[in-house]
Amino acid sequence: MNQRDKLWWRHGIFYQIYPRSFQDTNADGVGDLRGIIGRLPYLQSLGVDAIWLSPIFPSPMADFGYDIADYTGVDALFGTMADFEALANAAHAGGLRVILDLVPNHTSDQHPWFVESRGSRDNPKRDWYIWRDPAADGGPPGNWLSEFGGSAWQYDATTGQYYYHAFLAQQPDLNWRNPAVRRAIYDVMRFWLGKGVDGFRVDVIWHLIKDAAFRDNPPNPDYREGRPPHERILPLNSTDQAEVHEVIAEMRRVIDEFDSRVLIGEIYLPLERLVAYYGKDLAGTHLPFNFALLSAPWNARGIEKIIFEYEAALPQGAWPNWVLGNHDRPRVASRVGRAQARVAAMLLLSLRGTPTLYYGDEIGMHQVAIAPEQVRDPFEKNVPGIGVGRDGCRTPMQWDATPYAGFSTSTPWLPLADDFRHENVANLDADAASILSLYRALIGLRKKLPPLVSGDYVPIVAEGDLLLYRRESGETTVVIALNLGAEPVSIKSDAAGLSGEILLSTFLDRQGEKIQGALDLRGDEGVMIGTSLVP
Ligand code: NOJ
Questions:
Q1: What span, in angstroms and rounded, lies between the C-alpha atoms of 211 and 172?
Q2: Sequence spans of domains, the chain
Q3: What is the atom index within ligand 1 of the atom nearest the CA of 148?
Q4: Which pLDDT score, from 0 to 100, does residue 78 have?
Q5: CATH homologous superfamily of 112-164
């Protein structure tokens, strides 16, 4: 295996699949592994290099698979282990890597480990979870809050103690200070890596270790009404503890027992804290997810500032990455608008660092409004009415114009977007100017032009709605000009000094146009220019 193959996760493009919503083959309205197998040709033709599957393991589905009852099985809803093996084989045969979701911070309360743990105070598994005596008044042992609403401490009458759950009460946190827990999860990793899985996206990795004394979290002075209630306190003692990096280094050593695997961390922290998750001597996660664009103010200065600060914060030799959407955040097409979603695509696929696409973003899927009686997300059920619901970004993939969008032959578990009859893969594939065609073209260019993968990022200008930068390696340079607004923008020669040929416009209609010292961008247009910079 050559070096390029070893570092596939640097030059590759990741694609997140939310299995419940990708493709149903057994008419139960929920996607499954056979469905993903059937759609591999689509993913190959799109040109992505790796698929990351949100959890597929046996689960009561209180948090749709992020509550795992058996780490080394496959939930019957999704299929069988044989189906998974068939999927991994077919993906590999077609040049696609497979990343699984590892959820080590918590299990389901139905996991045999927890069933044992809660059985008695002297059960051997007692210390696998986090148990504390009640406070003097009988209340919870501290002020930590669950991200899904309410106290993070749940009283358990059987043994008269509270257990800690950063998310639902049905998701008790494992005690990562216990070496037996670590060993058990590392064996889970080995199980899947041994099956040929190419790596893991590790759920809430910055949560794994909590303050040893469980000291209270401080109040958040910036809390605003209307924000989720857990934001009333700052999770300074419940997350992002120094010792977490020892755990991650251990996980990385497990990953490195196998050839060319990747460790990705889910981390919502400010950039300066995030980059610590590359680990000492880069022996932590290969890719700590960079979610900065998920909440970026959509203007040129704001985005350039994020890129600049991220690039500046990266440790020597660390490889960057970028994300525009995932199963927890509103769809990019709704955040920035349909027209800007194309510009966002060009941004994502022209920045320095591994891009992760969220299923459906390539066809411009938008956030679907969910009626109260259709809500499935436990976060929305616990904290209703302030817009935290995640169902709207998890709706079925829109494949074609048949009654259930080609996703299923019966009613899907979440409603389809009302525009699926037009906005679907079949339709957009037939339209040379569609967002899907744009994604295909962007991915194709990224594969063809080395500067887009390995070139330096060089900012040029961020002014008004114009964001201009270049990617350069050696002699080759690509200039990217993005208009983040709806009004036309003109770039004058003395401002940017560029000349060359348009490689791609987000409208897909200017390829080959010669640029000589000036560039006019239409509203909501981005272009890539193969250029030589005139001094
Ligand atoms: C992060 C996952 O992305 C989210 O979907 C889940 O609800 C929480 N972790 C809890 O596992």
A1: 16
A2: 3-107+179-441, 112-164, 456-531
A3: 7
A4: 99
A5: Oligo-1,6-glucosidase; Domain 2 (3.90.400.10)
Output the six-digit token pair for 151.
């106290």
Q: Tell me the CA distances in angstroms from 85 to 33, 69, 228, 497, one per residue in order.
A: 10, 20, 40, 54
**Domains 3-107+179-441 and 112-164 belong to one CATH topology:** no
Tens of pLDDT along 369-410?
999 999 999 999 999 999 999 999 999 999 999 999 999 999
* For the CA of 167, the nearest atom of ligand 1: 10
Which tens digit of pLDDT belongs to each residue from 18-39? Answer: 999 999 999 999 999 999 999 9
| Residues classed as catalytic | 203, 257
In the CATH scheme, what is the code of domain 3-107+179-441? 3.20.20.80
317 φψ region: left (φ > 0), alpha (ψ -120 to 50), beta (else): left
Instruction: Look at residue 117 and tell me whether its pLDDT is greater than 50.
Output: yes
What pTM was computed for the model? 0.97
Q: Where are the beta strands (DSSP E) in 191-231?
A: 199-202
| Alpha carbon distances (Å) from 317 to 9, 10, 307, 390 | 14, 12, 17, 35
Residue 493's pLDDT is 63
* DSSP, res 324: S
Which residues sit with their C-beta closer than 6 Å to ligand 1? 63, 66, 103, 167, 203-204, 266, 327-328
